[in-house]
Amino acid sequence: MEGFGVNPDFYEFVLDKAWDCGQTTAEWKNRMADRHVGFACESNRKAWQVLFDKLMPSYVNESGTVVCARPSFEARYLNTTYPDTLLQVWKTLMDVDSDKREHLYDVINVGRQVLGDFFVRERDGLYRAYQGQRVDSVNYYAARMEEMLDDLDDLLACDEEFSLRKWIESARSFGNTEAEKDYYERNARTLITVWGDSRQLTDYANRTWAGLVSSYYKRRWQLFIGHVKAAVLHKRAFDFEACNKEVEAFERRWIEPDVTRITYPTGRKDVKQLARTIYHEWFGQDAR
User: Fold this and answer.
1) Which backbone phi and psi does 156 adopt, to 5 degrees?
2) Are the C-beta atoms of 98 and 38 separated by less than 8 Å?
């Protein structure tokens, strides 16, 4: 399962320590943090200390988020013990004066986990609105959930490493004819979504990627939200079975290249500026 915890520097640290690289653990962490921004920066070092010492151990086993889970009122793929601490780390990283690619990657990578962690709070707000049969509140949280998914997709689109386009184009490159290209694309889509024919493995290899969030995960949540709205409007219980059936039908359609076309965000944005805009929109003093 994809997530923030599987940062490549974590494995680099483990391998270096196995060969006794001649550095203390603290020195290794500081030098790694410095490499990411291109100079010695105390605030960046402290942020990475928090990541290594407090956050990574809690995320490393199961760090996916509810965004990528089959829509439900239950918490799934969630092991977010310190979301507010990670939010502060994200703010610190985006305030560091560096435009080095590794650092911008960190801003996106931490940001996607932050938004994924806090998405569950919006989902829980929707659940409370459903329980209270409050139509206005259901619409409020539904809109917020969709907006957060849009912001997440925009942030991910700033780096091709977080893009579905790269995955699909790579798969299609194995084919010589259009039929072969579609075959490889279908398999590529299947791997990161339904996995195969077993329902138990759906989302097993989920990925928080630009294009995948907007065309797949957001669409599933929209179907879910539609059923919640209908339940409140008609004053009836939420029909999970009917909702799940519709979501599953969509999943099967999505893996077919000739059925579901994917629209990718165009144009690369300023990572830091976008991250700050998203931060202030959701977590600033004037946040709704």
Assistant:
1) -65, -30
2) yes
Q: What is the pLDDT of residue 7?
A: 54
Burial class (CB in 10 A: 0-12, 13-18, 19+), 285: exposed
Q: Reduce the secondary structure of the chain to three states and give it as a string.
A: CCCCCCCHHHHHHHHHHHCCCCCCHHHHHHHHHHHHHCCCCHHHHHHHHHHHHHHHHHHCCCCCCHHHCCCCCCCCCCCCCCHHHHHHHHHHHHHCCCCCHHHHHHHHHHHHHHHHHHHHHHHHHHHHHHHCCCHHHHHHHHHHHHHHHHHHHHHHCCCHHHEHHHHHHHHHCCCCCHHHHHHHHHHHHHHCCCCCCCHHHCCCCCCCCECHHHHHHHHHHHHHHHHHHHHHHCCCCCCHHHHHHHHHHHHHHHCCCCCCCCCCCCCCCCHHHHHHHHHHHHHCCCCC
Kindly give the parts of the chain with pLDDT less than 70.
1-11, 13-21, 57-63, 75-81, 266-268, 286-288
Residue 279 in tokens: 């931060």
pLDDT tens digits, 215-248: 999 999 999 999 999 999 999 999 999 999 999 9
pLDDT of residue 78: 52
Residue from 108, 144, 109, 99 nearest 124 by CA: 144
Please give the angle made by the CA atoms of 91, 79 and 11, to the nearest 5 degrees: 75
What span, in angstroms and rounded, lies between the C-alpha atoms of 78 and 86? 14
